[in-house]
Amino acid sequence: MELVRKNIHMNRQKGKAVSQITLDDDYNIPDQMPDAGMLIQEKGTIEIAEVKVEAGRVRVKGNLQFWALYMGDSLDNSLHSIQGQIPFEEMMNVEDAKDGDSLQLKWMLEDVSAFLINSRKLSIKTVLTLELAVEELFDEEVPVSAEGSEDVQIKTCHISAAGLAVQKKDTCRIKDEIILPANKPNIRQLLWQDISVQGAELRLSEGEVLIKGELVVFILYEGEEESGKAYWMEQALPFNSHVDVGGCQEGMLENIEMSLAHGDLEVKPDYDGELRVLNIDAVLELNIQIYEEEHLGMVCDLYSPSKELELITTPAVYENLLACNASKCRVTERMKTESADAQILQICHSRGEVKVDDIQVTAEGLLVEGVVAVQVLYVTSDDSHPFLCMKGAVPFEHLIEVSGIGNNSVYYLQTTLDQLSVNMVSSEELEVKAGILIHALVLDRVTVQHISDVREHPLNLEAVKALPGFLIYVVQPSDTLWDIAKAYHTTGEQICSMNEMASQEVLPGQKLLLVKQMENM
């Protein structure tokens, strides 16, 4: 007799490591750039160059890419920007890591700060947090039937398991163009640029993942008509795209992390030869994990009236679905300028980033706490520094309701900025409204004993002969028809036929006529 098995492809976390790195370096302004009088705005992002397993440790190499906007130390208060990078390398200890494991790395910058040391040098400082999860793929074999013996009685139990159907990394390229409005002058040179994604939505379809959202593009530039004068423009570009994913089907369960890998802007001449066209080339990186929920009847007991069956059991771990949903959290906060002297005349641009600080498992579900880090570039009333940047953090708290969540549950959260709006309340105060989209996939990890092998032995005839040939049995409160039939070497079908029962349900106190099967013994 052989067990018929069904393979469930799963992944499990072998190890996890968290590391914090302080990136601090001085940067010299290039010789061809003018002296700096005041820093206005800075930003940064991380580029990961290598993630490699080395003898129970994982080497992470990359660069902090930073940009700084400053006002020159001259009477015209002209604006300039510089770009640089700070390399880093970190060894993260994960003892069970080996080649072939799936390495899931997330990073977060707490705050990129720039300070002028002198007119030719600035200091860049930030704290980088690296979170590394090491996962391995494995197959769990679920016994679903048995072959090779006619009189074997099989009892099955229902299990629900989320199997890993797809795991891959891919990119999605978005290209578009913007033509300057007629009321804007031609571009002499770009001073500052920012591209971000808002309102991103991912949907599974047959053989592909559908992606839609908005690219928010902002430029600050020096106009061609008047040297040194800065102009700006912001525009939201909707996009619809897709990534081919073999094996993907609508209705599966997704855990997809999407990030803007890089966004490039190139100034091009229009048909009249004037620099008024912006070519946008953005690349989205996707880390795709797609699960399929399978409902199986697992063999949980076997017996034969004609032979003894020895059941060999081993522990097996399955993950079943608790929740897969997307929810939105909306927050509002007010921000004030640090100095009443530099009043706000006009908002140029605002950008935000969702940062999760803590996730707690509660009786109701997952409690997510974090902030939306906001930067607002605005025009001031002070001619000595016409542009300033205000930074702030808008806290949020959101409960994702998950019925049945517990300490053995595993969860995957992806947070994105759904929308951001900043409006003037007064010349000294701004109102920030943010929408946060949180996608949660929550699985419950269950350990069960499953039958891994069955060994056949001759029937103990002496024990069978000791049983009465027939008897009237009174059903006990804990009895099932399966237990009664197995104990008296008969079958449930024969008991139902002998007692003219319409179903296999038995009630406490019910009397059953049992006849011992002697055929094939």
Q: How would you spell out the order of helices and strands? A: EEEEEEEEEEEEEEEEEEEHEHHE
Mean pLDDT: 91
> What profile does the largest beta sheet have?
4 strands, antiparallel
Total helical elements: 3
Question: Uncertain segments of ≥5 residues (pLDDT<50)?
Answer: none
Number of strands: 21
How would you describe this structure to a colleague?
By secondary structure, the protein is mainly beta. It folds into 4 domains: 10-136, no CATH class; 149-306, no CATH class; 322-451, no CATH class; 460-515, LysM domain (Membrane-bound Lytic Murein Transglycosylase D, Chain A). It has helices at residues 461-466, 481-487, 492-498, and strands at 2-28, 36-54, 57-72, 79-93, 102-109, 113-118, 121-147, 153-179, 187-205, 208-223, 230-244, 253-269, 275-303, 308-336, 344-361, 365-380, 387-401, 409-426, 429-457, 470-474, 511-515. The strands form 7 sheets. Strands 1, 5, 6 and 7 form a 4-stranded antiparallel beta sheet that branches. Strands 2-3-4 form a 3-stranded antiparallel beta sheet, with no helix packed on it. Strand 10 and strand 11 form a beta hairpin. The longest helix is centred in the C-terminal third of the chain and has 7 residues, at 481-487. The radius of gyration is 33 Å and the shape is elongated. The two termini are 18 Å apart. The model has no long low-confidence stretch (mean pLDDT 91).
